[in-house]
Amino acid sequence: MVFYLNWRGDPGQDPQKKDLKPEAIIQAFADKETESYEAWIQYTYRQLADIRVVPVNGVPRQEHLILVSEVVFRDDGTREVKSVQKRGGLHSVDWTRDDNDVINNLQPFALTAKDLPKYNVTYEGKERVDELDCFVFSVKPKTTKGGIYFQGKIWVDDRDLQVVRTVGKPVPQTRDNQFPEFETIRQIIDDKYWFPVWTHADSKLRFDNGVFHVEETITYEQYKRFGSKATIDFGKPPKE
């Protein structure tokens, strides 16, 4: 399955945005990220995670774990990522609480104004991705103490000044606790917000007991604003 970035309305760029300095672009997309993130946490959606350990170096392996979660709101209005289905399992590597945190919170990464001071953000240039012209920035945490952070690159649509693609990895990583590199694609939801719809990770992870090729595909679907009846569906649960 492949997702493509898209644009809405007139693709023409505001001439004033062509002359923006990187610092102004960073502040603008951080403000947009804040707005989108605050909207995102007001939506329910279904999250399908398909995790595999596949053969590497001639070693036959076919391990498969499927996790299905739903983001719901309790009666008191608080938000919950609720596990609704788990199928299969992994034997070569452990699926940990940190792995759950990565797929629930880091892979749909949002660099909000609140989190911006935690990162060094460097302008890398411009690049066209599918139908969009984007500003590209490298992102690196100033420290990795006290949590798991994103390190990699983000692509910012030069028209809406919103993050539309992220490619990177969770940090820190240790010999006993590793995560694959991933790519997350966003699309426009409800004609306004760029929300994550697809994440794919594919890496060879080296542990003391061997090298393991891990693949992950996560889809985010059936977006529905809390209290709304409209839904957007991007797929069906994967089959084992």
Question: How is this structure best described in words?
Answer:
The chain has one domain. The longest helix is centred in the N-terminal third of the chain and has 19 residues, at 22-40. Residues 7-13 and 228-232 have low confidence and may be disordered. Helices cover 14% and strands 47% of the residues. The protein has three helices and ten strands.
Q: Could you list the spans in which at least 5 consecutive residues all have pLDDT below 50?
A: 7-13, 228-232
Topology as a string of helices (H) and strands (E): HHEEEHEEEEEEE
- Described by the principal axes of the CA atoms, the overall outline is globular
* Arithmetic mean of pLDDT: 87
Q: How is the main sheet built?
A: 10 strands, antiparallel
Tags for this entry?
single chain; 240 residues; mainly beta; 3 helices; 47% strand
Describe, in short, the structure shown:
By secondary structure, this protein is mainly β.
Write the layout of secondary structure elements.
Layout: H1 15-18, H2 22-40, E1 43-54, E2 63-73, E3 79-89, H3 97-106, E4 119-129, E5 132-141, E6 149-157, E7 163-171, E8 182-189, E9 193-207, E10 210-225
Antiparallel strand pairs: 1-2, 1-10, 2-3, 4-5, 5-6, 6-7, 7-8, 8-9, 9-10
